[in-house]
């Protein structure tokens, strides 16, 4: 009897161990599957991190260059040599005018592109049969009381949309 109880306990423990091993294998498979799914994303995250570091380094270098330029600019404007000041101011004005012309050129290009985009969108809407609201036609109505009639009323005519009675063919 005691041997049977020991054997039952042992088989129960073996069953529990087998269940736990099976569950552990299931979780291991799920983990490996999830790891395989996230591996490309991890590579992408690493690439983004490297790009972020490169951009931060570039930003630091640009900031350092900006500081150097601002220091040299302050020294140049504080310089006692009037010719150097004048040359620098002329250079700045030329640079400013170049930038303004570039901005105006880019704005005109942008306006042209927006206009062409609008035209292409209208053509696409026509092809697809999409009707757009036209504000110029919003308050235009064909029949209004203050407009002159297409055919003026004459005696005997009660309907303004039919031809006058005189001109209708009547059976004689």
From TrEMBL:
GO cellular component: spindle
InterPro entries registered for this protein in UniProt: HMMR_C, IHABP
Compartments it resides in: Cytoplasm, Cytoskeleton, Spindle
One GO MF term attached to the UniProt entry: hyaluronic acid binding
Coiled coil (residue ranges): 3-126
Keywords from the named record: Coiled coil, Cytoplasm, Cytoskeleton, Receptor
Chain ranges of the Hyaluronan-mediated motility receptor C-terminal domain: 1-156
Statement: the UniProt record of this protein carries the keyword Cytoplasm: yes
Signal peptide: none
Name of protein: Hyaluronan mediated motility receptor-like protein
Organism expressing this protein natively: Equus caballus (Horse)
């Amino acid at each position: 009897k005691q041997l049977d109880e020991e054997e039952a306990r042992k088989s129960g423990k073996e069953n529990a161990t087998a269940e736990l091993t099976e569950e552990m294998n299931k979780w291991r498979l799920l983990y490996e599957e999830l790891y395989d799914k996230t591996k490309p994303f991890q590579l992408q995250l690493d690439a983004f991190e490297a790009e972020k570091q490169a951009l931060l380094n570039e930003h630091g270098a640009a900031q350092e260059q900006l500081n150097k330029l601002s220091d040299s600019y302050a020294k140049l404007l504080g310089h006692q040599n009037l010719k150097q000041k004048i040359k620098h101011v002329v250079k700045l004005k030329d640079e400013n005018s170049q930038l303004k012309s570039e901005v105006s050129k880019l704005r005109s290009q942008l306006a042209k592109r927006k206009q062409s985009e609008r035209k292409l969108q209208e053509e696409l809407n026509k092809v697809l049969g999409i009707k757009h609201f036209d504000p110029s036609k919003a308050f235009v109505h064909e029949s209004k009381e203050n407009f002159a009639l297409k055919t003026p009323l004459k005696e005997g005519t009660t309907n303004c949309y039919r031809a006058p009675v005189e001109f209708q063919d009547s059976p004689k």
